[in-house]
Each structure stands twice: as structure tokens, then as C-alpha cells.
What we know:
Chain A is an alpha/beta fold and about 475 residues long. In chain A, about 25% of the residues lie in helices and about 35% in strands. Helix content of chain B is about 20%, strand content about 40%. In chain B, helix 2 (about 35-50) packs antiparallel against helix 6. Classes of the chains: A alpha/beta (about 475), B alpha/beta (about 450).
Amino acid sequence: MTVTPEVVSNDRSKYDFKDEIVYLAETKRGLSRETVEEISRFKGEPDWMLQFRLRAYEHFLRRPLPRWGGDLSRIDFDKIVYYRKPSEREEKSWDDVPEQIKQTFEKLGIPEAERKFLAGVGAQYDSEVVYHSVREELSKLGVVFMGTDQALLEYPEIFRRYFGTVVPPEDNKFAALNSAVWSGGSFVYVPKGVEVPLPLQAYFRINGENTGQFERTLIVVDEGARVHYIEGCTAPIYATDSLHAAVVEVIALPRSKVRYTTIQNWSNDVYNLVTKRAHAYENATVEWIDANTGSQLSMKYPAIYLRGRGATADIISVAVAGKGQHQDTGAKAIHLAPDTRSRIVSKSVSKDGGRATYRGTLKVAPGATNAVASVRCDALMLDDQSRSDTYPYIDIQEDDTTMTHEATVGKISQDQVFYLMSRGLTENEAQNLIVQGFLEVFTKELPMEYAIEFNRLVRLEMDNAIG
Amino acid sequence: MTLTMPAGAPAGALLGLAAEPSPRDLAQTLSEPGWLVEDRMAAAALARELPVEANQLFTSYVDLRPVRFGEIAAYAQVGEAREISSVMPEGAAALLEVRDGALVARGLSRDAAAKGVIVDTFAHVLRRDPELLRRLIEGGATLPTDDRFAQIARAAYEIGVLVYVPDGVAVNGPIVLRWAQGRPGRALITRTVVALGRDAHASVLEEQVAVGGIPEGGSQALWMGTMEVVLDRGATLDVAGEEDFASHTVSFVNRHATLGESAALTWALAMVGGAYVKSRIDNVLVGRGAGVHQAEIAFGGGEQRFDLTSYTRHRGPDTTGDLLSKGVFQEASRGFFKGLIRIERAARGADSYLGEFSMLLTKKARSVAIPSLEIDQPDVRRASHSSSVGPIDEGQIFYLMSRGISRDLASKFIVLGFLEPVVARIPLPAAQERLRQLLDRKWIPGQ
């Protein structure tokens, strides 16, 4: 129970770097019908995808900005570059990756991570997947793990069958934007009965000032298959606003099990507006393990639609909101079939005037008999300049549902701090340890390397706070 | 007094009733002073600007479709019945009863009258002590400025009721306010202000009942009103409410309380009748050490809708909010429980809890819970909410059945026990017994 000093660094600049990249192709700033057509042409896409993008673009124009959640008024859609391409083709191996990009990943610790236990790496550099390797045995198992753009061309049938079925472009304004200009992201297909033995991982980064990032991830897990997908983000700090509007679609077919883990640490100028949704069919299990640190505003509510009898949803969501940050995050569990179960656990920390908001939905629709659901939200506030909100929506339309919900908000117990200080810790170390313990429900679900990295991020945030 | 009433709803009508007097005509008919006319007009202007639900959190859970304003008209006559009874219920300190749009009973115990307690209509108080009323209600008193229906009541009330207890006075026995409403096609809009001076004490029992002898059916009936509570330093008030309107009556109620230092308020509210009940309660804890305890129950059947909102605002330090909402829904009835605890930065040491618990007894019943928190001050004793929705606990049924009680009776006992916390807080024994019988009759066997 000690803070491991060797992994603790106070040097936040580790995450604050920016490389000069020569982009091989990019669109003009701002969004127009021509931009959308240009992106599709660049990529040599089939016509149905162009039509899909245009339909989404039309909806984006019509749809007003949401009036709830965070302050979106400062996003200037005309200043954003919607597509840029750093290199011409997807690299097959690490050696082929341009040196400059490699150095970026070096700083992020990717090569070590890969050497240790990566099953595959999909690394997103700006708007294109530049590096992607899938282990030999995964290919033999028939597992497909590649950039979404590539998958559109190589697996057109399965792609078209599922793409946009979980999150239609009309779902919300930012899903429409993503659908119009999407680029990059990961595509995963796990065939029937296949268990992927190690987590699939993709690192994402935003680089380039005012570059919007609109990746699109599609994960299809066939009957009885299992997979764990990990997405982790760090981003350099820039002065002007940056927009990240991703869409993640997960299809968990009968009896499959999918875990999707996210650790996010966007720089403090990023608007992180992400639509993540999974459909869980008969006896399937979907788990979202979701952490939000960094960004100036996150609006992200991972959702699971329990569509088949006996399906299970498990969502763990943690958020840390520091100075100038608003984490408006939460979870949704929608019970649409009998004998379904869901569990939502949310933990948030707010400090230095930051605002942490839990916003979630639990719905049991008519016909979803014998549902069991629980929602637990705990918030920790480190000072009285900060704010914590809890907005759970619970809508039950079946009489045999068992639903429980609890939420608490409080501060760090001075008794605990005193106890730890009496054992020789400084006040800063004591508070840090208590916050890490508060977030343990999340950390313990991570692979060891990620747990260490996450604790390091929390430590960095805490040092900024308490100093 | 006969109202000037345009045929059909005039332009700018607040509710869109079949016949609706303008606030100005209403004030003139009631010979109200200029400041009160202005107050009504200000409220009307505000109401016209406000949406049905101003809180973004709750907008998607407001459904006024069960309410048919267009088939309800205001009473053509408002005011007092020809004969006003002064007979009071056993043990009560005061009674004020409005039946079918007119004041029919008013009584005040000798003891309370001697201490300067007022339980009367605005119309009477305006004649006796206009400055007192002006001080208490001008500027909208404590009514929320973001609530359309609260402002409509302020603009368009036909009968106002004042309960006033001077500093240091403790009223012995409950003050009974009875609203008998339900003539098909008729609407009544009212305002009630309850003001307690320093260290004063009182208890109020508000009964909303059906008008006897009038057949139900046909058009809907409407009751819309407020209870605006102002508690000065150290004042304590217990409010109990029983609502049992007939099944064609829709009701809108805004209860709003402002509490000074060390003031204490309890609400015990039971909602049983009516086609549609929309209730909003605001507790604003301003003074250090102020505390509110609130328990409300809704027991639904048929197609009934209960839309219940609670706001607890902690402004002062060491304030306490303890709120419990419970619902039991039979047949195709529905409950919407919305709550918000707000702890402001100055409210160090606040203790706040909101519980929303529902039982659904049939497939068609539905319950929605939105218990939310907005916290600006982490130095709290407690800031939490919890909620649950479920069927009757099988373990409890088994326990009772093992004692020789039939399943149906066991279920009924468990439901009535679940609702008992409010029943036990009704002050008059007769009123408490009546509520017990009401709940007992509401139970639908064999579900």
C-alpha cells in the first residue's frame, strides 16, 4: 500500500509534446458538402459510403447543438481541418513507421508496451492509421484487427452489414458529424467461438493544431467469441480548441463477451464528444471500462442496449475533473429483453474548480421482464471551488424489475489523511493515495501496465492540484 | 361576485381554458388595490414567457396530455357562499373550507384568535390589514420564478388564503384547510400563504377532497393552487396533506417554503385520487441550522398520473434536508419522481438526503425516478440520494404467508406498511383514520 515512486513523475511535459509533421494530404478548414465528397474521393470509397456521409452531413446541418451538458458554444466548426493524411499507406511493421512518428510513440511508451504483451497495435496518428500489426496467431484464428478505412475495402460485406446500425447518423449532432467525415479508428471482427487470448490495443493521439479527430470504431464479436479491446489516449497541449468526435459501435452476438477499456487523457483544450454504444444479444456480456481525465469538456455516456434474453451489461466509469475542466460523463443501460442484467458504477473526482457530472440512463422497456439493475455513483470533491452533479434517469416499465440506485458526494476524510500522515506520508501523498483507493474499482479492472499508467496520470493531476 | 368572462379563451390566456377571466378583470371584480393588480400582471407576464418545464433535466418527463384544459371553464361566480359555517372539526384550531369555488366554512378557536392568529381569505385580510398581506405577498413572495404554474396561480388565483401566526405564538391543534373540488367542467385557482413569526409553532392539515353529491364523468375538473410557507427564525411548522380528488379531476400544486435560522418544517403528503396530479415542492434552507423533513406517498390505480418534483436548496450552513418519496402503482398508473438537491457554496455542514422508492404491482404500471445532485460545497455531513423500483418483496410475502395469511392479504399489508410513514404523521386522529381507510379501499385485490 505504498505509492510506487519509480513510476511517479511530476513532469507533465512528458505528455505535452508536438511533432512537426508534413501532412501528405489535407482538406481545407471548415466543413462543406465538397469537403465530405473530397474525403470520400481521397479514400476511394464505394458509393454507398459517400451517400452515407452526405446523409449524415445533411443531418448535421439541420441538428441544433445540444442545450444540455457542457458549454459547446466555443467550438468553431469553420476552423477545423476535417481530414489530413500523414503518410500514403498503412505500414506493415514497426520498422516502416516514419522516425518522427516513432519518436512520438516512444514518449508514450508504446514500444515497451508492445514488446511486453500487445496482441496487436492499431495506432492512430491524426486521421489515419499509420501502424498496425496483428500477431500471426490472431490472423490464424481468423481475427480481423485493422484500420476501419482498410476494413471498408477488404471486408465490404461484414462492414456494410453492421456499420451505422448501432449508432445511426441521426442519433445526435456529433454522431452525424463523425458519420460525415469519419476517418481512421479500428475494425475488429472475432469469428464464432474464438477467444482472443490477449487484449487488442490501439493508441490514439491528436496532433496538429485545430485538427479534428473523427475516428470510427466497429467491433463485431460473433457467437460465443470473446475479446478485450483497449483504447488509450494521450494528447499534446495546444492553445486553441480541438475537437474529438468519435463513434464506437460494438455488436456482441449471442453468448459472446466483449470488454472495451478506455483510458483517456486528452489535453486540456480538447472537446471530447463521443458516442459509444453496444448491442448485446442473447446471453452476451458487454463491459465498458471507461476513464476520463484531461480534456476541457467530455460528454460521453457509454451505452449498452440489452437486446437478447439473458444479456448482461457492466459499466465502470471514472472521471477526474481539474482546473477549467468539465467531465460530463456517465452510462446508459437499456433493457429491451427479458432476464437481462445491468450494473453501473461511477466514480468521479473534482478539484481546482473542475466540474464532474454524472449523467446516466437506466431504462427497462415493456417486455424486459425479470430485469435486475443497479446504479451506484460516488463523487469526491477536493475543494469548495469545484462542483459535482449527479443526474441519473431511471425509467422502469416492468413490474418485476429489481432496481437499486445510490449516490453520494463528499470530501476526503480528514481522519484518513491524519491516519496516513501519522504513518509517515506527507499530506499530498496521503490525499493521492486516498484518491487512488477511491478509483480502485476501475484500476483493478485494468491490465497491470495500464493500472500503473492510470495511477501515474491521477498522480500527475493530483500534483497539479495540491502541489 | 360575478366575473366578467369573455366567451372562449381570450388571446394571451394563461391556461387555455374554455372560459378564462384575465388577471386584470379578476382583480377588478374582487376590488383589489393597485399594487395587487400590478402583482398579478407581473406574474402573468412572467408565466407567458415560461415553458411548461424550465429545468432541462426534467423536460422530457413532463406529459400534460392527460389534462384537457379546453373542456374546463372558470367559475362564473367566486367568493363566499350565502351561509358560512363556523363549526370546526374536533381538536382543530381553525377551519377554512372552500367548496365548489366558494367559501363555505370558516372558524378559529378563541385561543388562537386571542393570540393574533389569522386564518382567512385574502379578501377579508385586505379589508382588515392590507399592509400585512402586502408585506407577505407582494413581488410573488417566495414562489419560484421559473415555474409556469406557480406564476399562473399568482396571476389568476380566485381565492387566496392566509395563515398567519405572530412571533412567539404556538397554535394548539391543527389548522384545517379543506378544498372540495370536482364539479365537472370547472376550474379553481387558489393561493395559500402560511407565515410564521419568530419561534412560532403551528400545524396545518390540507385536505383536497371531491365534492360530494356531484356525479363524476363528462368533462374534467381542475384544481390549481399553491402553499407558500415562510418561517422566521426558530419557527416550526408541520404540514400534512391528503389529496383524494375524484377520478375526473386534475390538479396542479406548488408548495414552496423558505426557512430562516433554526426553523423546522415537516411535510407529510398523501396523494391518492385524481386523474393527474402535478406537484412541485421547493424547500429553500436559508438560515443556519434550518431543517426540512418531507415524506410523500402516491398510491395509483387506473390510468392515474403522478408527476412529483422536489427541490431542496441548501443556502445556509448546517442545514438539513431529509426527503422521502414513495409510490405504489397498480393497473396502468404511472409515477414520475424528480428531485434535485442543490448545496450552495456557503452551505457548509449541510446534511441532505433524497430517497425515491416505488413498487410496481402490474405489467402496465410505470415509474420514473430522476433524483439528482448539484454540489458546490464538499464540506457536508451527507449529500446523497437513493432510489429503488421493484415488485413486492417475495421474502416478506413468504414470511406473512407462513403465519397463515393469504398471499393477497400479505401483499396488501406490505403495501400499506410501505405507505405508513406518511399516515403516521397526519395530525388529527380522525383525518389519520380516514387516510388509512382511503388507502385500504384503494388496494385492488388479486393483482
